[in-house]
Structure formats: structure tokens, C-alpha cells
């Protein structure tokens, strides 16, 4: 039984790795592709808003399908819709910037369906004892694909001089999504369990003394940073370097550092260290942004990228593990795992959209590099908000782990 479970873990990691590779191959340069057609930060911001709205809604609406029917089909459909998205981008070409909202919604639906199903299966085949280890391996795979994918994409786009290169990269990404769909059929069908409770995320937040209250606030803070940083860093690197191969090089270097840091964190980062590690990680993530106060260049962005890759696991592993541990606290919470995964994603979505709204509002007044840097410092301080809301819960969990 244990060997069967381990095989499922490996298969799930493989599907995740392929999805990650397909995403970074094309996704690293997707915003650059849009930017080259229309140099407008707000346009890219609204594309992100459309994605996040669709992610949150697809999590909530598809929760019934995932809980009561076949969650593996939701995972496969998410991969297939990702492929459809890149088919549309290939078809539209430079006209894609005229369809920011529908394209963002389609990509968000794909992301929502895949990650809702993935998170549920991930929860079912891991437990509190091996979750940090599994997260470490997910981080390792993400880093490895981040090393290979963007460098290959950057090289292809540069070698084929733009549009032809982008088309080949999008076709490669589409093909890898197809392989991931095929591999997913080797994952066991998971049994459905109970009726889906539409209002449970809101009920949980209104429940007095619920540990999800501070966790939800911490997730909103996490989203504040992620929503903007997910697209802004790559754009700034491209604008500073003026060529896709440099962005590929940036991703290669930072992902290589991430590979080492996630490996180390997965091996040595224990539950009792989560609170202190998260605080240290939050402070260091702010510190690595400060070189941009002097100058926004490829060099200073690379310093920030390397620093972020080094210290992000200190913040992300406690954030990921703590929320999933809450789902396994009792038989009741295990039975509501789908609803709790939906709650987790809705909180992240809220933070991401708020962060992007702040970004769009600020840049509508002033688009200078100085304002962008100050905005990055402001949003980059959000991990400290996560720690402030979560540290008591983390300490309590650490004490319980020693008993």
C-alpha cells in the first residue's frame, strides 16, 4: 500500500513538473509578448486581474464537480484548456492585446481547474509528516523546469528573431500540456466524498476561534505580493536588457539558486522552525529589493532575483504547509478539504487582485522607475503581514509537534 502511495506521489510530481515546464516555456515570455505589441503596464495588470477572477470563480464553482464527481477529469480539463489558450494566442498573434479580458479569463479557468484538482489530490496523498518534504520536491521541480524552460525559450525566440520564435515556443508548450494530460491517466481515480457545501468558505471565516481567520489574512498578504511580482519582474528584466535571451538567462540563474534553496529547505526546515524562518524570510525578501533604489538595471534585478530565490522558501514553505495542515486537523476538516482549498484560493485571489489594483492606481498617476521601485518595496513587505497574522498559530503547531 505504501509503495502504491509513493508511486502516486511520483506520478503527481511528474504531472506537476510537466505542467510547470509547459507554463515556464511559454508563460515566462507571455507578458513580454503582449508588452511588445502594446507597451502598457496597466494592460498587463488587467490581464492578471482577469486571470485571478477566473481562477477564484473556477475554484468555487468547480468545487462541486471535484468533490462529488471525478476530480481527475477536472485536472485533465485544466491542462487541456491551457493548451487551448496557447492555440488562441497562436491564432491571434499580435491581435492578442485586443482580447486581454477573454484570454485572461480562459487562462484563469485553466489554472483554476488544474490547481483545484491538484491541491486536493496533493492533500490526499500527503500528510503533516511528509508535506514539507513533498513541498521541497515540488520546489525542486519548479526550479529545475525554471532553469531549462526559460533559457530554451529565450534562445529559440532570439535565434528565430521574434514572432517565429514565439510561435515555436507556444507550440512546444501546447505539446507538453498534451503529454501531461496523457500521463494524468495513470493517476488513480480518487473517490468522491459527500455533498459540496457552497457557503462553507464564508461560514469558516465567521466561525469564532477558527484557525482559518489568521490563515486567511496571511494568504491575502501573500497574494498582495504575488499578484504584481508574478508579471512585473519579468517585464522589468526585459525592459532593462532589451532582449529575450537575457530574460531566459535571468530565469536560469535564479531558478538554479531556487533549486538549491528548496532542496535545503525541504531537507532541514522542520515545523518548529516555521515561525522564525518565516519572519527571517520576510525581512530578507524586503532587503533584496533595496538595490533597485539606486538603479533599476539588469544587474540590480539579478541581485534581487538571486536573493529572492535564496530566501523565498523560508516564507513559502510555512505558508503552504500551515494551511494544508489545517485541512487535516480533524475528521470534519478532512471531509471539507475541497471547500477549504477553495477558501485558501479565494483568499490568495483577493490579495492578488488588491495588489494589482494598487499597482494600476499608482501607475495611472506616475510611471517613473522610482515609483515602481517604491511600489515593489511596499508590496514586497507583505510577507511580514503574513507572519504577524500567522506567528501565534505557527508557534502553537510547533509546540504540539514536540509533544
From TrEMBL:
The chain crosses the membrane at residues 12-35, 41-62, 74-93, 99-122, 134-156, 168-187, 216-241, 247-265, 277-294, 300-317, 346-365, 371-390. Coiled coil: none annotated. The keyword Chaperone does not apply. Keywords: Membrane, Transmembrane, Transmembrane helix. Gene3D superfamilies: MFS general substrate transporter like domains. It is found in: Cell membrane. It comes from the Bacteria. It holds the Pfam family MFS_1. The keyword Transmembrane helix applies. It is a multi-pass membrane protein. This is MFS transporter.
Amino acid at each position: 500500500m505504501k509503495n502504491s502511495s509513493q508511486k502516486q506521489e511520483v506520478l503527481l510530481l511528474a504531472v506537476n513538473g510537466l505542467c510547470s515546464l509547459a507554463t515556464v516555456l511559454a508563460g515566462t515570455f507571455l507578458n513580454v509578448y503582449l508588452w511588445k505589441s502594446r507597451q502598457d503596464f496597466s494592460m498587463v495588470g488587467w490581464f492578471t486581474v482577469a486571470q485571478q477572477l477566473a481562477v477564484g470563480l473556477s475554484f468555487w464553482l468547480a468545487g462541486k464537480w471535484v468533490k462529488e464527481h471525478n476530480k481527475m477529469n477536472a485536472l485533465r480539463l485544466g491542462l487541456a484548456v491551457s493548451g487551448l489558450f496557447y492555440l488562441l494566442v497562436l491564432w491571434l498573434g499580435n491581435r492578442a492585446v485586443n482580447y486581454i479580458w477573454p484570454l485572461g479569463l480562459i487562462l484563469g479557468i485553466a489554472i483554476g481547474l488544474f490547481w483545484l484538482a491538484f491541491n486536493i489530490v496533493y492533500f490526499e496523498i500527503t500528510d503533516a509528516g511528509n508535506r514539507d518534504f513533498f513541498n521541497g520536491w515540488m520546489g525542486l521541480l519548479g526550479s529545475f523546469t525554471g532553469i531549462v524552460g526559460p533559457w530554451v525559450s529565450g534562445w529559440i525566440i532570439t535565434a528565430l528573431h521574434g514572432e517565429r520564435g514565439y510561435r515555436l515556443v507556444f507550440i512546444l508548450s501546447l505539446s507538453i500540456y498534451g503529454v501531461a494530460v496523457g500521463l494524468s491517466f495513470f493517476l488513480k481515480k480518487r473517490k468522491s466524498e459527500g455533498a459540496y457545501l457552497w457557503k462553507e468558505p464564508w461560514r469558516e471565516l465567521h466561525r469564532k476561534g477558527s484557525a482559518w481567520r489568521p490563515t486567511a489574512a496571511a494568504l491575502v498578504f501573500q497574494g498582495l505580493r504575488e499578484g504584481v511580482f508574478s508579471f512585473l519582474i519579468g517585464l522589468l528584466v526585459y525592459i532593462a536588457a532589451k532582449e529575450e535571451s537575457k530574460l531566459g538567462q535571468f530565469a536560469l540563474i535564479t531558478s538554479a539558486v531556487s533549486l538549491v534553496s528548496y532542496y535545503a529547505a525541504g531537507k532541514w526546515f522542520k515545523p518548529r522552525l516555521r515561525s522564525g524562518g518565516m519572519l527571517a524570510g520576510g525581512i530578507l525578501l524586503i532587503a533584496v529589493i533595496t538595490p533597485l533604489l539606486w538603479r533599476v538595471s539588469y544587474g540590480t534585478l539579478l541581485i534581487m532575483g538571486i536573493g529572492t530565490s535564496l530566501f523565498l522558501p523560508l516564507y513559502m514553505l510555512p505558508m503552504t504547509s500551515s494551511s494544508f495542515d489545517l485541512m487535516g486537523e480533524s475528521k470534519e476538516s478532512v471531509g471539507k478539504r475541497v471547500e477549504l482549498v477553495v477558501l485558501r484560493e479565494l483568499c490568495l485571489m483577493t490579495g492578488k487582485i488588491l495588489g494589482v489594483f494598487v499597482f494600476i492606481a499608482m501607475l495611472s498617476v506616475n510611471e517613473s522607475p522610482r515609483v515602481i521601485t517604491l511600489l515593489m518595496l511596499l508590496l514586497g513587505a507583505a510577507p511580514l503581514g503574513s507572519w504577524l497574522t500567522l506567528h501565534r498559530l505557527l508557534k502553537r503547531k510547533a509546540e504540539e509537534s514536540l509533544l
